[in-house]
């Protein structure tokens, strides 16, 4: 026997051990029984607990729809489109990830079937497959696996959590499940695990919780070759030990791996509920992660304490046109929660459809006088514009705190031009392309663009603030960076007129000489912003404009 071979064998084993110790760990979160169970919240809550233990962590969302990104989706279809610093138009769940972890996401954190197929087809057209027949397996699944590991390969993260959109059993989810099965085989159980979020319905007639839907959901997952490591069970009622034992037995998991996810008062309670269920410690054991320290959740608990024990209260009217679906303005609602906690104030946000704000000034006043302030929300198109302008006029004339975001800021400019400057036919060219006075106009670089997807002014841009303005006082800085998603801008041809009449440009993008923020000279708090401040508000860093707006509403 050649004994010289023992050293390389020992060295290889040692090298394998070291690589296994330092490589990123992967957690996949799947959903069963029904949609909208909260995979994003569970993913973000687990990530928060692991982050609080000292791990570097990120979350990504894989969506099974064929759109390349959500940018062209109607808000009624998929809720708000969340924009990242690098200009990616992504799923709203990325907003939850950022709000919980207080770390930015990017294009790499959101992948769709459309983007997967687009990449594979582009490779085929370029001849990268050398004449091979391009198929779902292996080409689509290989691209899914590559995307799933991109963030882990950067060596920035100890753990990568991947939320798989859709529900187990959906046809469009099958390639993702097959890719997951292969990844588990390739990476090994110590480096890759599956958490299955499912529903335990309560039958009121029988007065009992039923486990059969979860059993069938796990069976569906098993048919794809995937055994879940942990079951997270959404429920309206506590799950006793008998039910846990039954689920463990018939779903082939440890009793300690059956986790109760009872309905919570707010989404921000979920990390604490998951900590109580020891979800993070179970994950650490299964992935052989070192127990670095107990999670430091002091700031999170302090935030919840202020949120649940307010000493003030305000009512804010949210003027928008996608109000039938609250997720269309998800980040705005969450930003008000963060700002309310800072101010120890219960912020009651009352949605008001802009199409209902039509009538005489007295009729508009009767609908708005009960509020302490109004926010005019972003949007696209001409529907509801008149109502938004009427609401802004009321806020301007009655010194009511006003906050306009994107289209809300543009409407404030139009309202001022119409009713203060008395400019005939003042409008945005988005609403009236032949406006006599286009105070809001299409950006020059947008004029030749015909495609809709990914072609707006997207992502983070810098902005210089005017010293002494409400915006500068809120930010406590003279330069900021905020995220944008729009095609139309303030028309600088009208800047001098506006400024002389009292509408001040207090935020300017110097690179392109674009007005980003407007304020009124003789108004206690009237701020319109071209960007989307709500997208950068987190639990740990509530957005200063929302904090200051709520404070103004409290006076």
Largest sheet: 9 strands, mixed
- Rounded to the nearest angstrom, the radius of gyration is 26 Å
Number of helices: 19
Count of β-strands: 23
The share of residues in helices is 25-40%
What does the overall shape look like?
globular
Structural class: alpha/beta
* Terminus-to-terminus distance: 88 Å
Strand order of the largest sheet: 13-12-14-15-23-22-21-18-19
- Poorly predicted regions: 1-8, 13-19
Give the integer mean of the pLDDT values: 91
Strand content: 15-25%
Structure description:
By secondary structure, the protein is an alpha/beta fold. About 35% of the residues lie in helices and about 20% in strands. The chain is built from 19 helices and 23 strands. Strands 13-12-14-15-23-22-21-18-19 form a nine-stranded mixed beta sheet, with helices on both faces. Strand 14, helix 15 and strand 15 form a beta-alpha-beta unit. Helix 2 (about 40-50) crosses helix 10. It is globular and about 75 Å long.
Features:
19 helices; seven-stranded parallel sheet; disordered N terminus; 555 residues; nine-stranded mixed sheet; alpha/beta
Topology, please?
Blueprint: H1 6-22, E1 25-31, H2 39-52, E2 57-63, H3 75-78, E3 82-83, E4 89-90, H4 93-101, E5 110-112, H5 113-125, H6 136-150, E6 159-164, H7 174-187, E7 192-199, E8 202-203, E9 208-209, H8 212-223, E10 230-235, H9 241-251, E11 258-262, H10 270-276, H11 279-286, H12 298-308, E12 312-320, H13 330-342, E13 345-353, H14 361-368, E14 373-376, H15 385-397, E15 402-405, H16 407-419, E16 426-428, E17 437-442, E18 457-465, H17 470-475, E19 479-486, E20 488-490, H18 495-501, E21 503-509, E22 514-520, E23 526-529, H19 544-554
């Amino acid at each position: 026997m050649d004994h010289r071979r023992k050293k390389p064998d020992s060295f290889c084993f040692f090298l394998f051990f070291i690589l296994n110790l330092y490589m990123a760990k992967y957690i996949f979160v799947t959903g069963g029984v029904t949609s909208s169970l909260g995979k994003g919240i569970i993913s973000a809550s687990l990530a928060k607990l692991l982050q609080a233990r000292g791990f570097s962590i990120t979350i990504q969302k894989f969506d099974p729809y064929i759109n390349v990104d959500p940018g062209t989706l109607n808000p009624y279809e998929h809720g708000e489109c969340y924009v990242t610093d690098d200009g990616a138009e992504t799923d709203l769940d990325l907003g939850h990830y950022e709000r919980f972890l207080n770390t930015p996401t990017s294009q790499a954190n959101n992948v769709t079937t459309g983007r997967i197929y687009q990449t594979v087809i582009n490779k085929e057209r370029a001849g990268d497959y050398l004449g091979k027949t391009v198929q779902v397996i292996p080409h689509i699944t290989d691209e899914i696996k590559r995307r799933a590991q991109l963030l882990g390969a950067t060596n920035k993260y100890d753990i990568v959590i991947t939320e798989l959109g859709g529900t187990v059993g959906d046809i469009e989810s099958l390639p993702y499940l097959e890719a997951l099965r292969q990844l588990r085989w390739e990476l090994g159980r110590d480096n890759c695990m599956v958490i299955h979020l499912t529903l335990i319905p309560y039958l009121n007639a029988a007065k009992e919780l039923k486990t059969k839907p979860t059993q069938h959901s796990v069976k569906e997952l098993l048919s794809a070759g995937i055994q879940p490591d942990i079951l997270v069970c959404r429920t309206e009622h506590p799950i006793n030990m008998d039910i846990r034992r039954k689920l463990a037995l018939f779903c082939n998991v440890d009793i300690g791996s059956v986790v109760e996810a009872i309905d919570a008062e707010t989404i921000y309670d979920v990390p604490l509920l998951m900590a109580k269920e020891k979800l993070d410690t179970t994950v650490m054991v299964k992935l052989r992660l070192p127990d670095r320290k107990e999670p430091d959740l002091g700031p999170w608990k302090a935030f919840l304490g202020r949120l649940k024990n307010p000493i003030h209260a305000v009512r804010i009217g949210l003027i928008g046109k996608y109000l039938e679906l609250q997720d269309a303005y998800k980040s705005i609602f969450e930003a008000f929660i963060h700002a309310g906690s800072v101010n120890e104030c219960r912020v009651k946000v009352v949605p008001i459809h802009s199409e209902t704000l039509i009538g005489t000034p007295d009729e508009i006043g009767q609908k708005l006088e009960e509020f302490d302030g109004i926010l005019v929300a972003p949007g696209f198109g001409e529907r509801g514009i008149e109502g938004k302008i009427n609401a802004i006029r009321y806020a301007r004339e009655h010194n009511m705190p006003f906050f306009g975001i994107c289209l809300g800021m543009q409407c404030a400019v139009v309202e001022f031009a119409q009713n203060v400057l008395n400019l005939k036919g003042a409008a945005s060219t988005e609403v009236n392309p032949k406006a006599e006075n286009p105070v809001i106009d299409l950006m020059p670089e947008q004029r030749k663009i015909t495609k809709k997807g990914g072609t707006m002014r997207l992502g983070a841009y810098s902005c210089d603030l005017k010293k002494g303005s409400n915006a500068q006082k809120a930010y406590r800085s003279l330069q900021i960076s905020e995220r944008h998603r729009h095609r139309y801008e303030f028309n600088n041809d009208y800047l001098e007129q506006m400024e002389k009449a009292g509408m001040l440009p207090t935020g300017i993008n110097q690179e392109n000489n674009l007005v980003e923020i407007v304020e009124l000279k003789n108004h206690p708090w009237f701020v319109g912003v071209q960007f989307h401040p709500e997208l950068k508000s987190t639990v740990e860093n509530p957005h200063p404009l929302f904090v200051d707006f709520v404070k103004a509403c409290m006076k």
